[in-house]
Amino acid sequence: MNAHDSERIKGMLEELGLGEAATQDDADVLVFNTCTIREKPDTKFAAHLAQAAALKQRDPEKVIAVGGCYAEAQRDRLFSLYPYVDVAFGPGSIPHLGEWLGAGGFGVARGSFGLDDRSFAGHLPTHRERRFQGWVQISMGCNSKCAYCIVPAVRGREASRRPGDVVAEVTRLAADGVREVTLLGQNVNSYGRDLPLDDRIDFAGLLRACDAVEGLERIRFTSPHPKDFRPPVIAAMAECASVCEHAHLPLQSGSTRILKAMRRTYSRERYLRLVEELRAGIPDLALTTDLIVGFPGETEADFQETVEVVEEVGYDAAFTFVYSPRAGTEAAAMPDQVPEEADRGRPADRARAERAPRRRRRGSARRGSEPHRPRGAARTDATEHDCELPRRRGSGRARAGADRRSNVHDAPRHRLRSRRSVTLQSRDLAWDGCLNVRDLGGHRTSDGGETRYGAVVRADSIRLLSDSGWQALVDYGVRTAIDLRGDHERLDDPPADIPIDVRHVPFMEADEREWDELGPQFEAVARAAPDVTGATRDVYLIFLERFKENVAAGIRAVARAPRGAVVFHCVGGKDRTGLLAALLLHLAGVDLEQIAADYALSEDRLRPRHEASLGGATSDEERERLERISRTPATALVGVFEELERRYGSVDAYLRAAGLDDDELELARRRLRD
Q1: Mean pLDDT within 23-36
Q2: Structural domains of the chain sorted by starting position, each given as residue range(s) with its CATH number in brackets
Q3: For the chain, which terminal residue's Cβ has fewer other Cβ atoms within 10 angstroms, N or C?
């Protein structure tokens, strides 16, 4: 749904004469289309918005706009939380952004919220990211009362779009060369129940109407609710030439007791009967699902029931999320909230569930498909691994010769291995006792690729890892740990039975005499700098110049580490690990904007620890010093890179001056790319 809304926002802005900027620095208008279904999107949004605020500070004319579900949830409070936001709008009031910009902000309210005046966005222009594929909204809102879900509060009660409008949009898209459409709604299977009698058709009827559109080859839909998946829809999927044999069927839990607490209105047995009916009616069906682990009151026995259902069904893909309490939902106030440390499964459970999605139920093979093969570490914050889905290109028309499941969906495959969170885009990892753990994979690179997952991980406070935390490193594929701490900071090593090679590479390590020399320099640049950004930049530059050999040693250790993932770590701040991560991402071809955004995430993750440290200040002067240390804006990192380019001609030239040769620089690049 958010992808659809984003394409409408882009199309609307283009109609106003705005083109998509290459970078945030170049943009006149920055638009954030938000999701708030889990806590993590809120956290990431705050980090990105902080970066936008820094850009606006340099360019006060830059407009910051916030849309989507987070804006609807916060409403006018958003402007109090983030006073630099210029305009905000809910998911049902996208046109408000165009009205505000068109008026230059004069005479138009800053915010447009509320669920009574919602409107479908089908009349807005669109900017399709893929010319052959289009999103078509058929309903908005949801009438279900799932205990964990914030959607009804931010998108309202279900409202179905007139079938004539839906078919007209599908027809326009097909005439424009679109060959695949995805019908969108919070619960597509309940479509039509609120329509006037003379306009009323059900979802099965809508599928058949869209199937009749000339030129359309593939029809998908998301998301259905198992309680409303009726025989007419199954029949339409089987009989309509364009409707793909794919159903995303959210399970959420395999425990009937937990499903009842979730208010899902179906039992484990009813769900499994539906799976049987679907596969009987559509023999070549691809099934995907959503799972929530750690729901309030979930026991180990409940979790085992979920694992059993995963094994029995044999999903083609499963998207697994740790339960995230959302304010205002019934579940957030439930007793027996599951502590994070309990959100992990036994190794045997993980191994059994890992194998489950590799096979179809009854052990049947996929005809004509490639075997599922591991692709390295997954984009998860657990110990998962990606698998590519089998895919064949086909028109979606011919029953015998084409596989209409192609691109179901062009996303990594995730397997349930432990009671941990799995998210498709996040690089955060959860290693018990360790702060700010992030895989450096998933960053876009200048040549159109992206950095590789499962190659390099940065971490802070690794000394606090529990035994299970160390085991999580091993499960993730880590074989080398590069310890950036100085000799006086080292407190521990992994347990003796953990197969990780530890390499001690002091990063920016100074002895007592050097610290005596550096202290006055730090104080001098801090006093001379106009703000904390300038002070941080200048301190970092002193370190980078004074400890070139240490910098080179850190990059060399990562580049030359044996096969397997590498984790580099430090004490608990973000300076040394942040600088090393930034340099490695630069070598991999990641632009400075993304590097700064990644650094901003560390600032956000570690803020609670830094704020706690202020309580130890014994004087106002000490408190001011600690506050200065704790604030290291991402814009300071931008200044560091710009200054290195000014002094040396390029960051690579600085690294050569530090002692790295071209072979070592290439090894470092390949570590994150190949």
Answers
A1: 88
A2: 2-112 (3.40.50), 131-243 (3.30.750.210), 248-364+371-425 (3.30.750.200), 428-673 (3.90.190.10)
A3: C
